[in-house]
Design a protein that fits this description.
50% helix; 10 strands; 381 residues; alpha+beta; globular
Length: 381
């Protein structure tokens, strides 16, 4: 059993770490105040290949293994949690195209995502259908040889920034089997975007997008008609482990700051870390972060080795964000009044992390998937 990264992965980890520390860390709070990502971030991440990690090399990407994707997500999120969305969301879109697209679609659509020329978003959630994605209602109505997309998607990360979208739409009334996936340009003539004013992750441009008969040709259908829901769920088995690592890395950065503070801050003639009431909660937080981190990496390792990883990915999705929010809260409490100030990122981390207790599937949904896997569908909720 090997718990270490290989030499290539370690080299990659160091390069992403240095980039994130030099270029991203100083932007984290400023982007939050401005409510938008610095435009240089996408360009710089693309130049390092971080927007095309899962895209095959012959389509302009890196063809990276899943563990390496997790490594990149950790290093980015430790310095700028919201910049990591520029890895996460293109990954989701590219995953669907790589897995379900035909050769022509992969050749045409993947290179612009890989080089950062095109930023995609992922349109699944609807005002009345979030966790119940199998019953979404945005329609793809037949129009000659293609379709027209009509309806609304909500809670779209990067929705105000993206030029293209993977859109899941209903092509027939047959429940989950009636959902198809389309990759479309967000034509302003047929779409309207409304930004959210969010508690956290303000820089990622979360939005609602209204589709008013957006044309989608037969060439923009990704995979077979009615295969969209299956493709979506398969991509989540990857992204949920990556999200877990994003959250844990962000929280660990906060705990490390709290540990530094516990060494330097003195009360009653000694560092506050010498008091068990201060040190023990930090020790507990770091222990839980370590444990959840390996659940995430097990899911990615299992994916790389062709093993089932639904159980591990869903364990990662409900557990890691919960631990991360609690750890970030403990870090803020350790820093005291300084942590409560916007001069430090402790409060921003909590606000940002909470969003991924919801996005990409709530804890309840992850636990429902786990119950069905562990008990069997006949015995589970």
């Amino acid at each position: 059993m090997d718990f270490g990264f290989d030499e290539t992965q370690l080299s990659f980890q160091e390069s992403v770490r240095q980039f994130a520390r030099r270029r991203l860390a100083s932007r984290y709070a400023e982007d939050d105040r401005r409510g938008e990502l610095d435009p240089r971030t996408l360009t710089e991440m693309a130049a390092l290949g971080l927007t095309g990690l899962v895209i095959p090399q012959d389509h302009g990407g890196q063809g990276a293994d899943a563990v390496s994707v997790g490594i990149a997500a950790e290093e980015l999120a430790a310095c700028d949690f919201n910049a990591a969305y520029l890895l996460l969301i293109p990954l989701l879109a590219a995953e669907v195209i790589v897995a379900a697209g035909d050769d022509r679609q992969r050749e045409l659509l993947l290179p612009p995502i890989a080089d950062g020329t095109v930023l995609p978003c992922f349109c699944l959630t609807e005002p009345e259908h979030g966790s119940d994605a199998a019953h979404l209602s945005l329609k793809a109505e037949p129009d000659g040889a293609g379709w027209r997309l009509t309806g609304e998607k909500t809670s779209v990360s990067l929705g105000m920034l993206a030029q293209t979208a993977i859109v899941f739409a209903r092509t027939s009334p047959q429940g989950a089997r009636g959902i198809s996936a389309f990759y479309v340009e967000l034509d302003e003539r047929h779409t309207q975007r409304s930004p959210f004013r969010d508690l956290g992750s303000r820089a990622i441009g979360r939005a609602a997008i209204h589709f008013d008969g957006l044309p989608a040709s037969a060439e923009q259908l990704i995979g077979g008609e009615g295969e969209g829901f299956v493709r979506c769920m398969q991509s989540f088995e990857f992204s949920r482990a990556v999200i877990g690592l994003m959250c844990l890395a962000c929280a660990q950065a906060g705990i490390e700051e709290a540990l530094d503070y516990a060494r330097s801050r003195e009360t009653f003639g000694k560092p506050i870390g010498a008091h068990q009431a201060v040190s023990f909660p930090l020790v507990e937080a770091m222990t839980l972060i370590r444990g959840a981190r390996w659940v995430c990496y097990e899911a990615l390792w299992r994916r790389d080795t062709g093993r089932p990883h639904r159980v591990e990915a869903n364990m990662a999705k409900w557990w890691a964000p919960k631990i991360a929010v609690e750890a970030a809260h403990q870090a803020l409490l350790t820093l005291g009044h300084a942590g409560y100030s916007e001069e430090l990122p402790a409060g921003q981390r909590i606000r940002d992390l909470i969003g991924l207790e919801i996005g990409d599937g709530t804890a309840q949904i992850a636990k429902l998937v786990l119950a069905r896997e562990l008990l069997g569908r006949a015995y589970a909720p």
